[in-house]
Design a protein that fits this description.
By secondary structure, this protein is an all-alpha fold. 75% of the residues lie in helices and 0% in strands.
């Protein structure tokens, strides 16, 4: 039963991820990204890692999505700015590259010696030994604040820079709109 839920949620994750990158409206993409995060949480539950499942919903489904929606609302994109002008060949190339990357990642995970050494014959099978405690709070805390502290700090800096960039873009756009409004002749209509 676990394998069935895992594969169904995996297929739905792929579908929602594809919909995230193919929608023209960024708000719809953000909502579909929430669906993707929830399905990822389901996969964590199937893999017997309840802490990561809850953190996935709270951090990504909650806090990060609020940040994304805040930035989207700050940008206040118009229909003209949302209009897509991309060559179809470029889209086809990006799709083929993504499919190749997906196949490569599937192969890498399925042939990993680390997974085999942990005793997992398949991804939903019973895991024994050191890998069985990998999803516990204590183990995650030890790993995060010892060997992964540098990427953790870089991520926080990257998020901070993204917020500053969004504020800068919003201020620049408002300044340009204000200058355009001031330079219009009194008899002209606003478009």
């Amino acid at each position: 039963m676990d394998a069935l839920v895992f594969y169904i949620s995996g297929i739905l994750m792929i579908a929602s991820a594809l919909l995230v990158v193919t929608r023209k409206n960024p708000v719809y993409s953000a909502i579909l990204l929430v669906v993707f995060f929830l399905l990822t949480s389901v996969n964590f539950l199937v893999l017997r890692s309840p802490f990561l499942a809850v953190i996935q919903v709270l951090v990504y489904g909650g806090a990060i999505m609020v940040l994304f929606l805040f930035v989207l609302m700050l940008l206040n994109l118009t229909e003209e700015e949302l209009d897509e002008k991309v060559d179809p060949r470029r889209k086809l190339l990006a799709g083929a590259g993504s499919a190749c990357l997906f196949v490569l990642l599937c192969w890498a995970v399925s042939s990993s010696e680390r997974i085999r050494a942990a005793g997992a014959v398949d991804l939903t099978g019973k895991v024994e030994g050191k890998a069985s405690t990998a999803g516990e709070t204590r183990e995650i805390g030890k790993a995060l604040f010892s060997e992964h502290i540098l990427p953790f700090e870089f991520t926080s800096i990257l998020i901070f820079i993204a917020i500053i960039g969004a504020i800068y873009l919003t201020r620049t756009r408002r300044t340009v709109k204000r200058e355009n409004t001031l330079t219009e002749e009194p008899g002209e209509e606003n478009s």
